[in-house]
Amino acid sequence: xxxxxxxxxxxxxxxxxxxxxxxxxxxxxxxxxxxxxxxxxxxxxxxxxxxxxxxxxxxxxxxxxxxxxxxxxxxxxxxxxxxxxxxxxxxxxxxxxxxxxxxxxxxxxxxxxxxxxxxxxxxxxxxxxxxxxxxxxxxxxxxxxxxxxxxxxxxxxxxxxxxxxxxxxxxxxxxxxxxxxxxxxxxxxxxxxxxxxxxxxxxxxxxxxxxxxxxxxxxxxxxxxxxxxxxxxxxxxxxxxxxxxxxxxxxxxxxxxxxxxxxxxxxxxxxxxxxxxxxxxxxxxxxxxxxxxxxxxxx
Length: 299
Description:
The chain is of the alpha+beta class. The protein has one domain. The chain has helices spanning 2-36, 55-70; strands at residues 41-51, 72-77, 83-96, 99-111, 114-119, 124-129, 132-147, 152-175, 181-204, 209-219, 221-222, 226-235, 238-256, 259-267, 276-281, 284-285, 288-298.
């Protein structure tokens, strides 16, 4: 068990390290490009990001609603994956007039832990959920600048990006029934084409430096997600473990007592229980909004 866990931890660290190296290389490329060619600009920003609803969030919310309707003494609260952090950099090259083309990179991350307990007929149980999502887009944007005051101008931009995503799901169930405990982790990564656009306001501090306020939106989805699934069930002295690299992210409805609850699961094969309906592979929609503040340096 310790060897398997160590290998999983090393793989996780390697994947996160690779994503960070890609982001660092993109930022360094932006820096070197901006310094090598006079007349272009470098923009660095940081702030918050907001993720819209996706199948994973809907499924976990549905699980919590099912507990509320089915069990007594439910405690805790479901915390959706909503607010996260974002950082980015972009080099813009003037095309003449009010137009420019920008080449950039960004980093988005959101992670929330939810815990809720409930009472079963002869014992109590507690669930813990620990999802983590990281998103790195490499973007190309067209900018259109509009003067808005003596030292202020608006920056409208729109473009496309190559979005790289890493998604980690962790779920554990602990009970006081013969020390029964379930642990499950799922990890996957994928890349896809996405789109972004927004509006920035640039306030000139000097001839070469401007303070930037920026708001943007993005459209990016990931489907057919396949990854590594690890499961462990222990009760008293017995332990059962399973590990596969061919598990999929599933989304479906669970029909219980005349009500329908959105649910998610991770398995190699399509769930086929009679109470499940509209079973399909889950879609991780990471579209959302972002707002940040930063500096723009013109060379």
